[in-house]
Amino acid sequence: MTPCFQAGPLNSPQRRTFSLWTPNTSPKKPTPWPLQSVRYNTIKASATEIFGNQVASDFVCWYCGSTHPPVTGFFCDECGYVQPLSCVRCSFFDFFSLPASFEIDTKLLQDRFRQLQKKLHPDRFTRKSEKERKFSQEQSSSLNTAYKILSHDLLRAQYMLKLRGHDVLAEGKTLLDPELLAEVLEVREDLDNADTLQDIQKVSLDNQIKYSKIVKELAKNFAESDFDSAKKNTIHLQYISKIKEEADARLSKLQ
């Protein structure tokens, strides 16, 4: 195919001078998710709920100059080039094209994480420019963090509250109800006094039932935007999760 000259888009380095290009040589646009087609307006709505109307309003692709915000923030929808981590303001839910909800489809989250992980893995950018390698490493690291947080009940609750200005880690000591604190201390005492495998299993099972109950309450709290209750339940879950970790660690040693 015969090369031709074309002016680059506005606000791009190519616009300053005419550059030699060959049609159809730029990377392909990212393909839609296999399970459903994602519309940008839907993604923007969930991010706007958290960040306001400034979401992705200042996006400019570093390569082609496009001002159309990418669906996930990882790749430009026009040229397909990987974008810097700061190119678009969106939540971790937007990374995976999921609604900002505490109740989450973990299977769908895992599938989309694996798809993006393959596209952003630094090994795929070894022959790319230094800028692309840097961006892919940043995005890949951010993607891993997002997946870790959204796939964990406690971390997801803390993250959703922090997005709305509530830092439960800082407020934790003042939010736990005295009755709940007494309950947590009692469970911890039971675990400390458990000597046999059967005793530890019983404490672990009772604690797991409480854990599941709190998770259900959190789903209701966030669905109803009852953030005061969500904060208290998140702090409660934090203590219960710690006991769960300790019980699991003791069980693994005895089994």
From TrEMBL:
Pfam families: DnaJ, HSCB_C. The keyword Chaperone applies. InterPro entries: DnaJ_domain (IPR001623), HscB (IPR004640), HscB_C_sf (IPR036386), HscB_oligo_C (IPR009073), J_dom_sf (IPR036869). CDD domains: DnaJ (cd06257). Residues 91-163 form the J domain. One of its GO terms (molecular function) is protein-folding chaperone binding. Belongs to the HscB family. This is J domain-containing protein. Keywords: Chaperone. It comes from the Eukaryota. NCBIfam families: hscB. The keyword Chaperone applies. GO terms for cellular component: mitochondrion. One of its GO terms (biological process) is protein complex oligomerization.
